[in-house]
Write a structure and sequence with these properties.
Elements lengths: L1 H57 L3 H61 L1
Helix pairs in contact: 1-2
Amino acid sequence: MQKQMIEMMEKNTAVAMESARKIGELNQRSFDKLFQQQADLAAFFMDAGARGLELMTKAKGYQDLLAGQTALMRECGERSINAVRASIDLAKDASSEYGNLAQEGYSIAKQQMDEVSNLKVAA
């Protein structure tokens, strides 16, 4: 029985390590995607700021400046909304994957508990 318990502990440790690896990979993928979205958005806003300054120097009049700034702000707003939507989609995808990992973990834990119960009965 001791040999069976040691084998079961080794198996449980391997399963726990695999689960931790999967969670780590999911965390890293999620972080990479979010970081890339934030970097793209920051680059866009830096460019928009530069375009706004350029617009002030090249505008032919007040109406031209106002129209240019309005168009630029509209573009910034649309880009921000798209970034929020992309982040929500990413969160939904990650949530679904975390849920799948939790369900898998529950199934494995149940199976392991059944194995432990069977060992006690056999002893």
